Amino acid sequence: MVSNGETWVMAETVLVVDDQDVVRDVIRLTLEGAGYTVLEAASPNAAIELVRDEGPIDLLVTDVVMPEMDAFELADRIATEVPGIRILYTSGYTDAGAEGPFIQKPFTPAQLVEKVSAVLAG
Predict the structure, then answer these.
(1) Is a pLDDT exceeding 80 seen at residue 10?
(2) Which of 32, 65, 66, 94 is the most buried (most CB within 10 A)?
(3) How far apart are CA 86 and CA 83, in angstroms?
């Protein structure tokens, strides 16, 4: 829960999946600073386990290119565990092939928060 100054509101939960520790840390700190609850995983398989263990997740923020499986397979697998989950793809490549919301690395904290908010809003 997060206080908006007058009442307590539920913070959306975001799962961040990126195999680069520094990138994952920056995304986590940025989103926590914006009031989101953030879970993080360094690999797709770890992300799948987190989803099974942690309960409701509102948004998956995932790098497109990772070891084990790409973000599209990961998103499909997580969507079977969490129907209706929203997905935001990230990549340092301009032609990442993302079919859905996408943000190009590098991005500023403000750009990330704006994109996450827009994806969650639908």
Answers:
(1) no
(2) 66
(3) 9
